[in-house]
Amino acid sequence: MDQVANRSYSLAEKVACLQRPDSYPEATACVEALETHMSWVFLTERHAYKLKKPVRHAFLDFSTLSARKVHCEEELRLNRRLAPDVYLDVVALTVDASERFAVAGDGAPVEWLVKMRRLPRDRMLDVALARGAVRDLHISALADVLHTFYRSLAPIAMPLAQYRDRLAADIDACRKELSEPVHALPGELFAGTGEALLAFVARESGLLEARLQAGRLVEGHGDLRPEHVCLLDPPVVIDCLEFNREFRVLDVADELAYLAMECTRLGARGVGEAIFAASCEHMGDPVPPALFRFYSAYRALVRSRIAAWHSNDAPAAEIEKWRARARQYLALAAAYVQAWG
User: Fold this and answer.
1) Residue 24 — φ and ψ, nearest 5°?
2) Which of 230, 59, 211 is nearest to 142 (CA)?
């Protein structure tokens, strides 16, 4: 066993093991493997197992086994707030003395995985939007889940100057990334959009301060997108952004506008805005239209930056996909700004 404990196993070896049905404690005929920029997800017939890649960026550090275990535990804790029956456990990928891999085996832990209940793909909000299958009852049920969640969160105190500086820094970072020649993005879009958003932050101090004074700044989900919402009864929301608390500290209206913007991008503006309106109504939080448009444009600009960033390290076959996504978000951000009149 000492030999096993002293050996370093590669990510490729772990992924190969997790693609084999006999590696799991439950019987499964097949395993579907899905890769993202920061993780691998392995789908058995009943469960999903998420492995974090050993990567390090300015905003996260998964480079050590102990760090990945901590982040798996944090992912479990945070996601149980909105999906308590989905996030089941943190389990080890083990290797025994004969160097046989197993999930939740008796050997030495060489990796940590978040174990989840597998959700039906056809009930995810992005899929339902594509089918035109979202009904008023789904909107009402999701709004009820979201408003209950937000009302349960303690307000976070932050000075207005700090909040404004944080927004301005994010907008400047977006402009810097999007101006890189490699992305070949229309300069008038990111420059004009960024300037308009910065002008809003400078001009609307009273509006932003009112949000802070009303206790609307909370530690929310951090990545509220349609592909993270499952329209069960009641709906559940998965994939909370666990690796950086700062990204989860936001205005409730910001997070809800983010979801509405993503619905608009998928061609379902009416659904997104209905979810936003119903959630705010349940909370007794009348969000000014100007603030909704600002947060929507801001989130579209941030997503454009993330898509551009992904294109920097994507496989050659996917680079244009991410550049097209960056252009799509950027055009949407500009459209929200132009709606200000």
Assistant:
1) -100, 150
2) 230
Last residue of a domain, one of 118, 142, 177: 118
pLDDT exceeds 60 at position 4: no
Alpha-carbon distance of 301 to 282, in angstroms, equals: 28
Give the pLDDT of residue 339. Answer: 86
Q: Tokens 């389990």 correspond to what residue? A: 91
Q: What is the mean pLDDT of residues 64-90?
A: 97
The answer to whether residues 199 and 280 belong to one domain is yes
334 and 212 housed in the same domain: yes
The boundaries of the domain holding residue 236 are 125-338
Residue at which a domain ends, from 118, 136, 163: 118
Write the pLDDT tens digit of every residue in 134-165: 999 999 999 999 999 999 999 999 999 999 99
Q: Tokens 């058995």, residue?
A: 44
3-state secondary structure of 100: coil
Best CA proximity match to 114, nearest among 85, 59, 82, 71 = 71
The pLDDT confidence band at residue 248, using thresholds 50, 70 and 90, is very high
CATH number for 216: 3.90.1200
